[in-house]
């Protein structure tokens, strides 16, 4: 049985792994995080959860739309109805990280496994993880942000040489749990940039439960770039002030956290579905291959799996 190591348990990595596993391959997924989903992230607290990464998903591709319908049937996704929105917004239930759960079902996913090095065995691959764990397989699929992939694969494969063309925008995110609802504030607000480029009442999403009201505030790309290396305390104070300027006097704040996404949104993609070296048995996938949407990550992961299977069938 052909075996594959997939590095990255975000949408691209899990879509790739799922397609390979469904074709009968033995797949191991490694991820440095404690949960699934990558930027489809949910932060849990004693006052409820916060979607502090991707806020919602849209579908244009029929195959991806069909997969979201299946995720809804599995109770891991639901439409988030918003007035004035011409395309369905999908969210994970009860959090965004849950939306990838059907892809991971039955897979060997090893969380909190930080990959430190990869080495070609010609044929096959060896992956060394923090804590001296060694994993070996016939093929290797990398599904992490392009800059991280370039660092990991430098000198390992020529596929890493062109990744510097990919560009990302960062994002600072503030998560605030309020003791009382903001009665008159819109449930969603968007702007092009600034400290409050996105404001949403996370508690208004389907499947959420919170005592009080939870809000997520995400700064725009320009503002986040300017403040990228500021301390968490500084950014928290600035975003709190901006949120209060938008909302008016806030009820008691029960908890507050900030998170920095260094690689939040793809600004310039590779314009290729995936990268694959069939002779060496290594490939790369991610939203950075196609564009700044979760759908792009799914399609890239599926494309890489398809390339891998096509090569093996020859």
Can you describe this structure?
This protein is of the alpha+beta class and 314 residues long. It contains eight helices and 18 strands. It has helices spanning 11-22, 62-73, 101-104, 146-153, 221-226, 232-247, 287-290, 294-312; strands at residues 3-7, 26-30, 43-45, 48-50, 77-79, 90-92, 108-110, 115-120, 125-129, 133-137, 139-142, 167-178, 188-190, 198-201, 213-218, 253-268, 275-277, 282-284. The strands form five sheets. It has a six-stranded mixed beta sheet with strand order 7-2-1-11-18-17, covered by helices on one side. Helix 1 packs parallel to helix 8 (294-312). The longest helix has 19 residues, at 294-312. It starts with a strand and ends with a helix. The model has no long low-confidence stretch (mean pLDDT 95).
């Amino acid at each position: 049985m052909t075996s594959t190591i997939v590095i990255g348990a975000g949408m691209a990595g899990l879509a790739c792994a799922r397609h390979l596993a469904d074709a009968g391959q033995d797949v191991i997924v490694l991820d440095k995080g404690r949960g699934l989903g990558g930027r489809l992230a949910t932060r849990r607290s004693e006052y409820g959860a916060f979607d502090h990464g991707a806020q919602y998903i849209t579908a244009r591709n029929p195959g991806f739309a069909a997969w979201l319908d299946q995720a809804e049937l599995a109770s891991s996704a639901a439409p988030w109805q918003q007035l004035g929105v011409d395309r369905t917004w999908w969210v994970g239930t009860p959090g965004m990280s849950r939306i990838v759960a059907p892809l991971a079902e039955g897979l060997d996913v090893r969380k909190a496994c930080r990959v430190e090095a990869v080495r070609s065995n010609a044929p096959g691959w060896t992956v060394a993880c923090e804590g001296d764990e060694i994993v070996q397989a016939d093929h290797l699929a990398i599904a992490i942000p392009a800059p991280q992939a370039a660092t990991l694969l430098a000198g390992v494969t020529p596929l890493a040489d062109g990744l510097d063309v990919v560009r990302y925008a960062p994002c600072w995110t503030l998560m605030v749990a309020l003791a009382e609802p903001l009665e008159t504030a819109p449930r969603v607000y968007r702007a092009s940039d600034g400290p409050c480029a996105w404001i949403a009442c996370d508690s208004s999403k389907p499947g959420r439960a919170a005592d009080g009201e939870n809000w997520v505030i995400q700064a725009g790309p320009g503002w986040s770039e300017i403040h990228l290396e500021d301390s968490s305390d500084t950014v928290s104070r600035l975003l709190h002030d901006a949120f209060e300027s938008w909302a008016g006097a806030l009820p008691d704040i029960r908890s507050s956290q900030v998170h920095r996404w260094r690689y939040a949104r793809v600004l310039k993609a590779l314009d290729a579905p995936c990268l694959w070296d069939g002779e060496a048995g290594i490939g790369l996938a991610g939203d950075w291959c196609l564009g700044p949407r979760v759908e792009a990550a799914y399609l890239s992961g599926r494309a890489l799996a398809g390339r891998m299977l096509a090569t093996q069938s020859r």
